[in-house]
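dumping this here before i forget
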Amino acid sequence: DKEIVMHAVRQNGHALRYADESLKMDKEIVLTAVNQKGTAFQFADSSLKKDKEFILQAIAQNGRAIICIDKSLKTDQKFMEKAVEQYTKCENFD
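structure:
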């Protein structure tokens, strides 16, 4: 149930680990989890970890999300410049 998972990730972002696979694709839930704990991004669906625009939103929520992006994007210099720029603007690194 989305409401239960949303409540859980507000308390502990890593609760995303236990969510149903369909909810790991839910951008609202994932951003809420990332806001609470940046490294919760590792538990998001792999499609979100390749979605450049979504990744930038996640990094804006919590700078630590940058360490969980898909490896294929880490070689994309243009994207990584944007990601690092977003990272430097972020104020949340929990």
